[in-house]
Design goal:
Helices cover 37% and strands 20% of the residues. It has 1014 residues and is an alpha+beta fold. Helix 6 packs across helix 14 and helix 17 crosses helix 21. 45% of the residues are buried. It binds zinc ion (3 copies).
Length: 1014
Amino acid sequence: MYFEVPGERKLAGRRLLEIKSLTQNTQGFHWVRTAGFFGTAFGWSAWTFRVALPIMKRFNHLGEANRVPLELKATINLPKTAFPMKANLPQNEPKMLARWEEARIYERIREARKGAPTYILHDGPPYTSGPIHMGTALNKCLKDFIVKSKTMAGFDAPYVPGWDCHGLPIEIKVDKELGGKKLQMRPLDVRAECRKYAQKYLYLQRQQFKRIGVFGRFDRPYATMNPQYESTVLSTFFSFYENGFVYKGLRAVYWCMHDETALAEAEVEYENHTSPTVFVKYRLLDDPAGIDAALAGKKVSTIIWTTTPWTLPASMAVAFHPDEDYVGLESGGEVYIVAAKLAKDVAEKCGLADSRELAHFPGRKMERLNFQHPFLDRKILGVLADYVTMDTGTGVVHTAPSHGAEDFITGVKYGLDATSNVDEKGILRNGLAEYTGKRVWDANQPIIELLKSRGALLHTEKTEHSYPHCWRCHNPVIFRATEQWFISMETPMPGGKSEEDTLRRRTLEEIKQVKWDPAWGEERLSNMIATRPDWCISRQRVWGVPIAVFLCESCGKPLNDSAVNKKVVELFARSGADAWFTSESDTILAAGTKCPHCGGTKFEKETDIFDVWLESGASYLALVADEPAYPWPSDLYLEGGDQYRGWFQSSLLCAMGTHGTPPYKGVVTPGWTLDEKGQAMSKSRGNDVDPVDISDRLGAEVVRLWVASVDFREDVVGSEKLMLRIAENYRKIRNTFRYILGNLGDFNPQANAVPFEQMAALDQYMLRQALAFASDVKNSYLEFAFHKIYHRLNHFCIVDLSAFYFDVLKDRLYISAPKSQARRSAQTAIWRIGEALVRLIAPIMSFISEEVWDHLPKSGGRAESVHLALFPSAEEILGDAGSVASEGSGSDKSAEDWVTLRSVRDEVLKALEEARNSKLIGTGLEAQVMLTASDPVYTVLSRHAAELRYLFIVSAVTLTPGSGNGTGGVHVEVKKADGAKCERCWNYSTRVGEDKEYPTVCERCSAVLKEIGA
Ligand SMILES: [Zn+2]
Ligand SMILES: [Zn+2]
Ligand SMILES: [Zn+2]
């Protein structure tokens, strides 16, 4: 506190003030003069006799009251807080992270929620081949919001992050780094290099996820390359195997000859590709009279159409649609059988001059007829297939079971040979000299020439069409029949009701039990499961979990012995999957083990590895093996839409094969992260927003708040501009907290809190608003509607608190006596609002909530971290149970009142703004407001008449019943306030000077000054 002392010189504003004398009478006058510029000249003013009141009592050494003047400013309760306005997030967030780490916050939360009902969000493992990007940040923040909000709702919600470490992308990158060296390396050494690579990015991503404020069991994550995890992958496979789901067989699979591996459906993308198209004549060997009498004695052929001439050496059949019409076209002394719908086109393209329709018959007539291969000594079988279409070609499909998925199925049905004469590099073998030894694409032209020379080529052209490509190397892929391991979708479930109760059927039933969010997920996955082929689970690569099965050297058949299988699983748990490549695994088979098929006694180890989807699909199984207390199934999986064909599906199948139920109760799918033009973000395009960079420049809290701001179920947009806007909103939220904390410096909840019934009506109203806010926010957390929380939060902080409540409250908080009921009521309200707000936003704004938590007054039994606390209850917000119980009865009326009061306030603020613009007034306190209102507005206003001037922040309000023909049933008139300005509160009052002791202040302030003993 500053006292004016006679003889002293001090600065008063921009002027120097000199105090000459202090009179000792109670009026407390003294002489002052000021120095400064008067016009253009610097100098002293004349001495003036000035009221120096108010005067603070001071006691001399004899205990007599002395009076010294004090600055009025010192009697005003200005906000005071150590909570800084500037967040300085890039510097302060790492400090907060270190503090959490030090306090072992994740473990503390586990202890605090021990015994509570569990909620398990099971993490989908990101791939360890690069730093995180905006999509991964979105994914991890959403999970963190869910886990933290469940924790604060009272659940025990552990979160074990996982990483997907095996697979082709890493092996390809390591291949590139190793170059030619790889050929000299043992698989074990290549695997060690891959492991190093995966480990590096696991560490990097882990540090980046922690940086954006994600809590979890980061010191012991799950990783698909951990021994325990690898053993679970193998035991998952064995439970399929021992229950009869697994078979090894030839199958036309997508094959990348560049990467020399089979590909899963999920690893194939469709891109445009130009192919040479051929129309080829296949001569009928059987008597055509069997088809139609009109064809008797004719020379008859059919015409097939294909865009892959290189598959013709593997041609085994020609397929017709059973129910479509076919015709026999006669031209140049020969008859050609083609689909009726395409006959005109074919005749034109193949130059069948003057063609004439001899016969008309359904495709089913062609079944089991024999044709001649155009250049090989091979009989070609007429077969029927529903997939033959009538939109392009000839309606007759050349069938090579070794080079097409549908062809393969047809081949199985008709017992056709599916042996592939194309090797893993895509080179044709065992054929004619014209094409043998050539790569498939290079073989096309020689085969076309061959067809020409045999007189079988009727037409050729180029066709651009959508064609499967490898998702990694982007080269076109082929279908190739190879020996692969499969999980059959058609095998009956163990203990199933009937033969029809297959893995596919049961899975389709179980999908209906899962809550899909968005709801389209159910249909999407059901369609995929209904039509998917058997699951090809083998890959011919090195970096993965080996299919650890012993094969008989003499008959080649696998040994499926559950005792042996168990030993291998134990070996993997002990030494990791690498053990399959060392002599450690050679000791598994007991001496004298015999092949049950041929009695052979020599075995070799299968070298294929598992499809990575089977690996990641076993992740919840691995987690439950590690944490046996976790429930089956988990509560939630959350990943992008591509996981319907990936992880959601493989996890579901792995769970069905081991538990007979899905691994999740619910599945949530966020959209894609796009740039402002709606394009996918990518580093190579240069349109990506790097979450780590944003964290380092603007703060991780901005990244988190951005995640909350978007409706994640749609595709979301991220950009630098958006981040800056989010940072601006962050500042507004921060200022809300700063106001709260600034006004609680002298507030002790235990001693000073005012019971709800005794609070000012406005404070009661705002606590009810806070309660409604809390209930909306808690409901939005239940729906994972974080964007609703974001918008509700902004509205509450900016519109309800800053622009309304805090604005109105300033007068009461600053001007009232510090310990007065009026001020304590306001402090109680803002303390309760602060306590509620900080907990409600903690799952999203994890950093600022902890910072605010530190600065809020400590009340009894309060957790030391906000992240250990629970969401606020209604009782905590309102302050007692009684008013919670009466909620909805008497409060409805007061809530309605406040709707009216706030809308009248808006009208008044508009009128004040106009008065300010027309220079009638400066600040609102220089104004008085005359309201004319009709009912029902008048009654409401008169009920709160005494409060109106504070609500409008003007010096006086007069209320008159009348027509109120302004907007909203009220007419507003603004005039200059009567009376003089109170030097303390700046309100105008006709009563300034009434109190002789404090002649420069208003009646309200003089009462306050008396109360505080000035
Ligand atoms: Zn490839
Ligand atoms: Zn054998
Ligand atoms: Zn005053």
